[in-house]
Amino acid sequence: MILSIASSGAANLLLAGASLLAVVAYGVVAGHSAKSVLPQVPEQAPTGLAQRLPGLLLLAWGLHLLALLLDFSGLGQAVPGTRFGFGPALSATVWLVLAVYMLESRFLPLPSVRRILALIAAAAVLVAWVFPGESRPHAGSPWAPLHWLLGLASYGLFGVAVLHAALLNRAERMMRTLNKPGLGGSSEPAAQPVMPLLRLERLTFQFVAAGVAALSAAILLGWWFTPHWRWDHKNLLAVLGWLVLTGLLTGRRVFGWRGRRATRWLYFGAMLLLLSYVGSRFVLEVLVQKPVAY
Predict the structure, then answer these.
(1) What separation in angstroms does the CA of 173 have from each of 161, 198, 220, 237, 259?
(2) Considering the entire predicted model, what is its pTM?
(3) Between these two residues, 176 and 57, which has the higher pLDDT value?
């Protein structure tokens, strides 16, 4: 009994330490990153702390991963088993978005995006630490972990798609402003942005397509291994989100949707999915404090 309490205390202390260190590292990165919205080409190479920010972001990302693993494992809990909830799901989604960003930033510096993502990641780590989820000693099916993994993967992919769509919209607005005479622009064509618009658009829909594939598999697995499928808020919102995002891909292929119409569909579908798991579990775990099956 004493050993169990000591083990639980050590695990909670380790989780708290990893979470707080990640938040501090993310805060330093956010505080010293550029505040511009689109990437700029610097006149000279960064020096001092600015030169170390990518490495510091990687350290924060690693600490973030450690906190997630400690949380998911349920280490030190009285009942052995995994632990999951809306906080860790949100934190894992942001972690996946950061992973893609760090890969892309090796080829294209995006200091403004780094600042925004670092702030969001710090908030997500804190939310997961305060609301670590519930212990789930019995998954109910051997397929349940794969269902959760696919669901998280789809969240991350749609999160990256939303990030690219926001950059695309911002780049289009800036180009229109620069091309308007008398509004701070000139009659000359605007300079090409660092990341071409067509490349941004292509990447956005590639992530949407990958997210729809992962979400489709997650929904099918959930329907398959759940003995009594029911149209609760989570399942209804997930299917509605899937319909919206599938409709977006169909509209793009058949009608050539692009620009604001396409990104609005993406934002709406992503919002439905966010409400599906994170929103419904927040209500059940925090507001109602009712245990959930999965």
Answers:
(1) 18, 15, 39, 31, 11
(2) 0.80
(3) 57
